[in-house]
Description:
Elements: E1 3-4, H1 11-17, E2 22-23, H2 25-28, E3 36-41, H3 47-58, E4 65-70, H4 82-88, E5 89-90, H5 92-95, E6 100-105, H6 121-134, E7 135-141, H7 143-153, E8 157-172, E9 186-197, H8 199-203, E10 208-214, E11 218-224, E12 229-232, H9 242-252, H10 278-294
Parallel strand pairs: 1-2, 1-4, 3-4, 3-6, 4-5, 6-7, 7-12
Antiparallel strand pairs: 8-9, 8-10, 10-11, 11-12
Helix pairs in contact: 1-3
Amino acid sequence: MPIKIPQGLPAREVLEKENIFVMDHDRAVTQDIRPLNILILNLMPEKQKEETQLLRLLGNTPLQVNVTFMRTATHESTHTSHLHLDQFYKTFDEVKNKKYDGLIITGAPVEKLPFEKVDYWEELKEIMAWSSQAVTSTLNICWGAQAALYYHFGINKVLLPRKLSGIYSHKVLDPNEKLLRGFDDIFTAPHSRYTDLDQEELAGHPEVRTLAWSDEAGAFILIAGKGNQIMITGHFEYDTETLATEYSRDLKKKIHPDLPEHYFPEDDLSKNPVNSWRSHAHLLFSNWLNYYVYQETPYKWE
C-alpha cells in the first residue's frame, strides 16, 4: 500500500526512483480506506534528508500511511528554506486539536546542552504531554529518545568522553517482544551522538525495558508500557553514506573527529561503506506500524 505525502514534496522523486509507492491527496481521496495518520516532528537541521529517510521506511509496509510534518515554532531553522517549511510543515498549534495514530520525534544536534537550555524545550514538553493523550504510539529517535526518557521517566543523559559514531553490533534481549519480531539475534545499526543514557537510572526504572543492547554503544531499543513510548538511541533511518557525510562535515569544521567505527572497510576512507542495517530498519518500522499503531489504534478517534 502507498504512503500519502504532501503534493510537491521533493522527497517524492527520490522515493519513486526506488519503487516506493507514494501518492498525493488527489489520488488518496479516491480510495475508500482508513489510512494511518502519522505525525513527524522533524528536529533535524537538514529536514529534507530526514524526510526522505523516514518516508522510505514508512512506505514499505502493506498499510496506507498519511504523513504530516511538524516543526517547532520556537526555533527558526537555518538549514531549510522558509518556503519549504511554510509549504510542507505545520506547527503544534495547527495539529494539537487532532488525534494521530503515531508520532515520530527525530533526533536533533543539541545533545551537549542540558534539556532545559534547548530553546524549544518548553514547546517540546507541551508536545510530549499532548502525545500521551492524543497519540497511540510515539517512536523517539536519538536525541528525541533521550528527551522522551528524561521527560516521561526522569532518566537523564551523560556526556561521553568522545563522540560515539559508527556501525555497532547489537544483541536482542527480548525476542518475544513484537517490535523485534523477525530480528536476527545479532544485528547492526548506526549511532552518532555525544551523549549516552544514565545507566544507573535506566537500570533502576520499573517502566522502561531495554530490548536491544550493544556492548560498545549501550542501550539501543527501549520500550515503556505496551509500546506507547518507544525509544531508539541510534539512527536506523540513516543512508549508507550519512556517517561519511557527517565525518567530512566535522573535518571541515576542524572538530577533529574520530573515524566512524566499523564503517569504512578496513578503516580505509577510499573504500565505500557497506549498508548492513537496511533490512532491520525496514523491519522495525514495519513492526511498529503494525503491532503498536495499526493493531492498537481505534478505527475512529472519539
